[in-house]
């Protein structure tokens, strides 16, 4: 979901989340739980459904109730089911040796044209024919297939490997050769027919936007009412799209629906999965996105996920499993400026997406204090123009100046105002689409406007239509969630960054551009912001790499994009906790030189090292043989994984810095080559690479090295030390950030 809607909906979703997590012993109501059983067992003689029914009967102790309580069986790509259970039944199931985890179903939230040129992927870029065999799965709010971005002119039939389906329904009459698959999941009845189409149709706009960002065809002259005019185009315009609708208007995105979509997508033959959805981080075996993407990875499918919109605060990153590509959002070199002129001739500039052209030269101007409703409720903040504090009479036809929020435009429109100027407490980089002529200004400019209002009898102002302007980029968007992560402390997340601020892409015409029913603006393209918008950029970049290297593993594709990313102009308080390895550079990523690959068994060793139950880990691969942690070679080093970035978290009491990272790189550049390591490290951090030269005499040869990081206790008040390792053969530059993070002691 884009940022603004997020603010409103987040509360609702959090309430649901808390309610389902409370283990209420007096509650005898059955609730949906997900029972996850790992990989499919091969040919044990009974069907998956019978197996589930048997398990349920034993746990519940009543065959009839057991039959009624089963909601859904997964069994295409992994094993598991959903059932309505009492807490003690869920407990009994979790103790069964065939079960990996049991967790209550929760609901999660949804988290341009120019962006691809900005990323160096121009229209004339070299592309492979194979791009049209690539299928990008998008788990989202559905799709508006009539959008010009999904025109299938010139596309042949779906690739032969495609096994997916196309479901029709209200406002969705079928697929085409661009959007080759479309399904919806409503196991939890999260879809309300009063608010959404129970079909793959997109009544929100989000899914249409993310899908077209990944793989929309080029549409010339795309804009939002003339704003951001240019050619709208996905990153891999020849690739196919498969939509799996798992998010519902007003109902959020249910865990059980997400898992069902993964179960299908993996089997359907997709190449990449893009998931712009998140929720609080959890242990991997209780997290549907971590589970689904793990089974996708096993089948060679990389999953790209949004990092979340809870920045700029530290520790907010979501979707952190090491096999997920976790994406932060950046701003591009374009901003949306909305100018204001005051009656005294002064000009002020703010940001917003204001599609309205003024009809008059000037409008009367007022502020919340002057427009207060004397007889109204006496709660609420008048200067912030809170709902219920203003007088309709004093607002009608006027531009109202309000403090502190970028969301009062709705209130002012509701009261019949002519516009709003909002002064933000903290600077923000997001331009929101406004309900009426409106802009957000910085506090300092706000004070000068307020002073002018107080200084004259008839204050006046006019708000102009938004114009685009150049700005310096890239930078991490303020809302983009930051690390460090809390699940595996020594894997750096987010992994990578891509544009997610003010992105123009296709939109659903079943909804207005603000989502509000009183808004009559229906448009084929819209400008929205979020890590949701960044995620499909990375899915597309990964698809692009895959079209050149169809045999590369998900980890190799991820490595190629991470080690060739452009390190970002970073704020010292964030460092790579904001941007990961940097902004994607897809053109470079098709020739990375070296890759850090990760095999399935390395992931399993890593999970063993992280303390997950060995029997459960064995279940993730299935098969006849019993596996447990002793079957996998033990993970070595501080992080225990061949990750393309290096990270170490210290707790408050840790004194010295001491870490060893073991790494193996595979030569994918030239047969004969010599790579030398260089390290840029800050004062107080010693980084040694052993050996510091790697010689390769053929392609695909692997070489190992270790990185020894040492340092004295960090200076008081310092929490981040960030270094950069670069392997170079003079033609390739293979970069890995090394980040040491120390929790600052709680003050007081
Ligand atoms: C002021 O508030 C009262 C109470 O909510 C409301 O009935 C009245 O219509 C408001 N007056 C104006 C002019 O908006
Ligand atoms: C009203 O809101 C503004 C902006 O958030 C804030 O600066 C001010 O302190 C608030 N006033 C009151 C009385 O809460
Ligand atoms: C303008 O007047 C209002 C109401 O008297 C007051 O709250 C506000 O602080 C004044 N603004 C400035 C910038 O002086
Ligand atoms: C903005 O950038 C574009 C592309 O780099 C350039 O052509 C244009 O002249 C710039 N505009 C301004 C106002 O600097
Ligand atoms: C893992 O869980 C199983 C079943 O819950 C238990 O029997 C076993 O002892 C556990 N293994 C380890 C290594 O903790
Ligand atoms: C902090 O880390 C040190 C070294 O890893 C460990 O011995 C200690 O128990 C940890 N302290 C806390 C509070 O976790
Ligand atoms: C834009 C559009 O076609 N909307 C239709 C969606 O479906 C409902 C119910 O069938 C119709 O009433 C709308 O016209």
Automatic annotation (TrEMBL):
It comes from Xanthoceras sorbifolium. The lineage of its organism: Eukaryota, Viridiplantae, Streptophyta, Embryophyta, Tracheophyta. It comes from the Eukaryota. SUPFAM superfamilies: Subtilisin-like. Residues 641-740 form the Subtilisin-like protease fibronectin type-III domain. Residues 192-207 have a biased composition (Basic and acidic residues). Residues 33-111 form the Inhibitor I9 domain. Belongs to the peptidase S8 family. Residues 132-565 form the Peptidase S8/S53 domain. This is Subtilisin-like protease SBT4.15. Residues 191-212 are annotated as: Disordered. Residues 1-24 form the signal peptide.
